[in-house]
Amino acid sequence: MAYEVPPLSYDYAALEPHIDEATMKVHHDKHHQAYVDKANAALEGTDLADAAIEDVIADLSKVPEAKRGAVRNNGGGHLNHSLFWESMSPDGGGAPDGDLAAAIDAAFGSFEDFKTKVKETGGGQFGSGWAWLVKDGSGLAVVGTPNQDNPISDGKTPLLGIDVWEHAYYLKYQNKRPDYIDAWWNVVDWSKVSERFAA
Ligand code: MN
Q1: How confident is the model at residue 151, as a pLDDT?
Q2: Where are the alpha helices (DSSP H) in the chain?
Q3: Residues 65 and 121 in one domain
Q4: I need a surface site. Which of 19, 44, 53, 111 has the fewest CB within 10 A?
Q5: Confidence of residue 137 (pLDDT cuts 50, 70, 90)
Q6: In angstroms, rounded to a whole number, what is the distance separating the alpha carbons of residues 11 and 6?
Q7: 38 and 108 part of one domain
Q8: 77 and 139 inside one domain
Q9: Cα of 39 from ligand 1 centre, angstroms
């Protein structure tokens, strides 16, 4: 079955003032749709046309070589954005609690140190990409990926990802990517991240 852009569980304007309505509309309806359309076109007629996107991106070696670049970029774009919309909520923000909070403290020293690491990783990503909190073996790590690569391709489980492509923030934040990353913490849905951590 062809992939589809999942609907948002909140309004385009619900993440204001941190993430603006105009950005959400073009990001969700245009950018994500383009990744979906191109991923579907690349996978059509292959053995993977009915595979879950996580499974495709987790093992790109199974994708026919002629299609691999298109699937890595556009299938990755579909997976990354599907995770991204779910990781935000109008009721988000604050700090994680429970086992996730303890694991963040164990890995990074403190929640503040964790956020600093994400900001360095996302702010330092040259060009387009993502900053991720991942489950890596038994612990947590922060990693960056270029383009639409997803840590799942490296055997890591993404718990949250911040899109640091200019299309994610430029209308509101222009060149100030670090300000966008700071603002993003006001919309992060820690309950969703905790759910992924516990899975
Ligand atoms: Mn994006």
Answers
A1: 98
A2: 21-25, 33-43, 53-58, 65-70, 76-86, 98-108, 111-124, 170-173, 177-184, 190-198
A3: no
A4: 44
A5: confident
A6: 13
A7: no
A8: no
A9: 15
Identify the CATH number of the domain in which residue 102 sits.
3.55.40.20
Would residue 2 count as lying in a domain? no
Q: What is the pLDDT of residues 167-180, one digit of tens each?
A: 999 999 999 999 99
> Residue 30 and residue 94: Cα distance in Å, rounded?
30
How far is ligand 1, taken at its centre, from the CA of residue 105, in Å? Answer: 29
Looking at the chain, the number of H-run helices and the number of E-run strands are: 10, 3
Q: Which of 35, 51, 86 is the last residue of a domain?
A: 86
Domain count, the chain: 2
Domain stop point among 36, 57, 86:
86
- Residue 161 inside a domain? The answer is yes
Q: What are phi and psi of 141, to 5 degrees?
A: -150, 155
197 within 8 A of 99, measured Cβ to Cβ: yes
Range of the domain at 193: 98-198
Distance CA 129, CA 125 (A): 7
Task: Tell me how far the alpha carbon of residue 147 lies from the centroid of ligand 1, in angstroms.
Answer: 10
Q: How far is the CA of 168 from the centre of ligand 1 (A)?
A: 5
